[in-house]
Write a structure and sequence with these properties.
The chain contains four helices and 14 strands. The chain is mainly beta. It has one domain: Beta Barrel (Elongation Factor Tu (Ef-tu), domain 3). The strands form three sheets. The chain has a six-stranded antiparallel β-barrel with strand order 1-2-12-11-8-13. Strands 3, 4, 5, 6 and 7 form a five-stranded antiparallel sheet that branches.
């Protein structure tokens, strides 16, 4: 019997801590479609169930994940050209004031006003954001730069929206609101080198089989002699890129006292900045970087603000 999913294949280790987002939803409303946060830990709350389940209208228990939102700025615009030879597929324009403030080694090679005159050469515009993690409980002092898609009916509308935010700080309320659904991108917990029993869940061998218990019964037939890649074997487990879809935003805020637990979150400490409360769990350990995107497969229903009745503080 086949054990372990081949959907996540190969089981390779993540190369960097910043997760990647390969696709963005198409939204006509001009707004940022993603953000970056830090996982602080998990907790539980009580809220009034507003779904169509049998418990509708009653108070229900929900496990939640707490994320801390660091200080985030818009430092540039990235324009993608109609160039199928990929010699110069993109052009970047930066905010000079913010670059000097954050001491970034970037220089403007293009003028935005001149680019606006030749909009036919471009197919898309995206925002370049930078997050300062030094003020969070993660004890990470790096500045993380990343790209975020922007909603809009055409490229001119997107450029005008990003230009309005260029060099400014973005608050969490400027991007998301309570009740919407997001996709979470993170890196799972690393578990080091593990055997096939834990890595793939294969059955343990009986005591009298080969004097070994925690191993695979057979590596395959005699012919062909090669061992197929589908055979469960020992190897590195965890620390992989993973995406968790449709996580509901139950709460956002800028007062950490509303969500901080007594003594701080385990392996993280106390939240100092704005925060996000997501329903359920997401991949990764505390202090792990999490990128959020507007849900690509969200249900097209009215956005209902959750009615939270209790937040655990123990």
């Amino acid at each position: 019997m086949r054990r372990g999913s081949l959907e996540f294949w190969p089981h390779r280790r993540a190369k960097r801590q910043l997760p990647r987002i390969r696709h963005w939803p198409k939204v006509d409303e001009t707004r940022f479609l993603g953000l970056l946060a830090i996982k602080a830990g998990m907790n539980h709350i009580m809220l009034i169930d507003d779904s169509n389940s049998p418990s509708k209208g009653t108070e229900v228990f929900k496990p939640v994940t707490i994320l801390e939102y660091p200080k985030t700025y818009v430092y540039g615009i990235r324009l993608y050209k109609k160039d199928y030879t990929y010699k110069e597929p993109k052009i970047e324009i930066y905010s000079n004031e913010l670059i000097q403030k954050l001491k970034l080694k970037l220089k403007n090679k293009h003028n935005l006003e001149e680019i606006k005159k030749n909009m036919k050469d471009f197919i898309d515009a995206r925002a370049l954001l930078i997050s300062d993690l030094s003020s969070t409980g993660s004890h990470n002092k790096k500045l993380y730069r990343y790209e975020v898609a922007v909603g809009g009916k055409d490229i001119s509308e997107k450029i005008a929206f990003i230009e309005k935010w260029l060099g400014k700080e973005i608050k969490i309320s400027d991007i998301i609101e309570e009740g919407i659904y997001l996709d979470a991108f993170s890196i799972s917990k690393g578990k080091g080198w593990q055997g096939p029993i834990k890595r793939y869940g294969v059955a343990k061998q009986p005591r009298k089989a080969t004097n070994k218990v925690r191993h695979v019964g057979t590596l395959g037939p005699i012919t062909p002699h090669d061992v197929l890649y589908t055979v469960p074997q020992a190897g590195h487990m965890g620390y992989n890129y993973r995406a968790d879809l449709n996580k509901r935003v139950l709460m956002i805020g800028n007062d950490p006292n509303k969500i901080n637990v007594k003594g701080g979150f385990t392996n993280y400490g106390k939240i100092k900045n704005e925060f996000i409360v997501l329903e359920g769990s997401i991949p990764g350990a505390p202090k792990r970087i999490v990128r959020l995107r507007y849900a690509l497969r969200a249900n097209k229903k009215a956005i209902n603000k959750p009615k939270i009745t209790y937040i655990a503080k123990v």
